[in-house]
Design a protein that fits this description.
The complex is a heterodimer of chains A (502) and B (368). With 502 residues, chain A is of the alpha+beta class. Chain A is built from 20 helices and ten strands.
Amino acid sequence: MIRPTQLPQYLADMQREIEKHAREYGLDFFDTIFEVLDYQKMNEVASYGGFPVRYPHWRWGMEYEHLSKSYEYGLSKIYEMVINNDPCYAYLLEGNSSTDQKMVMAHVFGHCDFFKNNYYFSKTNRRMIDGMANHATRVRKHIERIGIEKIEAFIDVCLTLDNLIDPYSPYIVRRAPQPRRDEEQKPEATEVPKLRAKSYMDKYINPPDFVEQQKKKLVEEREKQKRFPEHPERDVLLFLIENAPLERWERDILEIVRDEAYYFAPQAMTKIMNEGWASYWHSKIMTEKAMTAAEIIDYADNNAGVLATAPGQLNPYKLGVELYRHVEERWNRGQFGKEWDDCEDMAARKNWDRRLGLGRKKIFEVRKLYNDVTFIDEFFTPEFCREQKFYSFIFNDRSGNYEIETREFKKVKDRLLFRLTNFGQPFIFVQDGNHENRAELLLKHKHEGVDLKMDHARDTLEGLARVWKRPVNLLTKVDGKGKMLRYDGRDHSEKSAEYSDK
Amino acid sequence: MSLRIDQDHRRFREIVRGKIKQNLRKYISQGEMLGKKGKEVVSIPLPQIDIPHFRFGQKQSGGVGQGEGQPGDALGQGDPQSGSGKAGDKAGEHVLEVEVSMDELAAILGEELRLPRIEPKGKERIIARKDRYTGIRNTGPESLRHFRRTFKQALRRQISSGTYNPANPIIVPVRDDKRYRSWRSDPLPQSNAVIIYMMDVSGSMGDEQKEIVRIESFWLDTWLRSQYQGIESRYIIHDAMAKEVDRETFFRTRESGGTMISSAYKLCAKMIDDEYPPSEWNIYPFHFSDGDNWSVDDTVHCIDILKTQILPRVNQFAYGQVESPYGSGQFIKDLQEHFDDESNLVTSEIKGKEAIMDSIRDFLGKGK
């Protein structure tokens, strides 16, 4: 655990000042505790995803090696890090100039406000620092009992599956609470109950059509119960935790990995919004309040670095901040509603200004209710696309390059949304936990135009088989044709298969 | 400062080590993959140590960018990453460049090829002694007095005997309180070694052959350096004449003349005579050629020099024959015929890059 240290006086003063500005603008955040770290410690914390303690695993070490190397060679350094927790913890890099520190603080308060107020963070564990430490303790205990090799190997397996969650599930009740298994099962109705009627009245009181319909429904119902799971299950990890034949320590580790995946999911869901919001506020606070004349060059240099774009890359900071400004501008000028939507006169649209001044209020509302997908879907307009020079690009098989495809609004937006949907990852469902009545697992990839990366898919199946302990199958499409991948614990096989889009 | 992450980092390094071992054959046959950084470290690109996921392939994939450009403009190859590197919570895809010290690399090589440690020859090893401060003792010269320990000891005595007055904290050490640094001198076996590389640079040795020699010499260097403290390398090239050159020239030069191997052996023998008395030096001549020699007479001459002047003085003489489309490959047969029972002459035929690893084992497997 990082012990709260006394912030150096000048930074404490700075924090007080920036915090005051932030509150005056209406930002609303948990208490925020800043820590100054030297670069080694900073790299360590960054490798742990911002947390002081995580369970032991080699991949933190890999991240650490990467970060320290990039720092030593001067390729990158981490300016800022902040954790979604109450209180919020944020880290400052020792030795940064005071302009940098100011900017970072302003940026951090933006994040903290976002964490506290954005709907998608509302279900996250606000004591995750303790949560992570508890996970670490649990894993360490298993390591002491079972040995690091085995535990680490199993964590590797769980991590290959950690994107198979249902990120919206915390906000929606997807299924009724399951009746407990030992509860008395109601005897199933085998026939359609009929109303009593004299025989000559029967076909009026129990019309054959209706009876037939009910029969069908009954059969369907029974079929459904036979299926397992009843509906395709998106939370593959949960399905495994509930149904795979796991040892206790295995189940515990799988639960830990799932827990952490759900904790981080909202951050991936709101990357553009979150970074955009923080960038919006650091620039507001710096340029309108906190900056001295002497700091302007340093600030501008740094800010330009944060918002820089490179070919073939989407900078979430840039996209986010520009889109908030776009929304603010529109609502300030009243560019919304039916009248606006119906107006096709370009000149009128261009000079449209109702002087409503609702912009600030609107963006606060946006930061509360939206996530990246809905944010882009709702506010990414043709005007914005053109002004910000967006293009879409595709991979060209022949040249092996990514190439600019088009600047056409609809295509660009579709592609952008596709990339953001499910974090740009494929949708995978548990289709059947008793495939071909052999207790094999069948997953289905809901194909939406892009094939899976096959080598990864095969490796992931191996992990899945390790957890399921029976052969596993994945139904997907490759080059437009249905394909069934199978791994039986020893060998991979592949065959063509029926793929329906249902 | 010790960090919590050190443990995870160590685990990662172990995995890296395992991967390098697994792929050693590939690294050995493609020496160019190793970027050398300074004298101590090489950087090795590893096939990604990655956690697989269900994810999209490159085909049909694409994304959205921002900036100038016309449809059709190329944006660069494969896998562009989204976002700046800042504040990310996911690691980007990258080929992992790991740095490994030469010692570690040698250790991996040794483990994988099961190379025996080299027993330095001769009893007259130069022994150096090295003193190190290791502890504390009660007696010693005043110049080595450990102030803090002495003070603590005196304070402890005064408190326990009740003569310490906090209002007037004067500490007076007596003789028994005094503590001194102590040292240990470790004998440091120091054996000197020299590697003499000889290579045929006549017309029949092409670039590919030289490449093999270069890669092989890198690994030989790596191993021998891990076995000896101070090691020197000398380079001799020859066609019909032999001369000593520096490392750069050694691998670059291409002559067109004929081949007289004896010229190189003569120079090598002279070098040993003049500079490396065998009583003090471990000597490792390596000779690489395509096996073509000018004449049978010269071969006889070579064998004579080896027998009388070189073999008695060196730890091991190694001859590596690189296959070339022009060479007859006769020389190795001659050597094998004449030195069948000679234990410190090893020969190895290197058929191509893939065979380098086996050849290293041939050369170093005897532990001489």
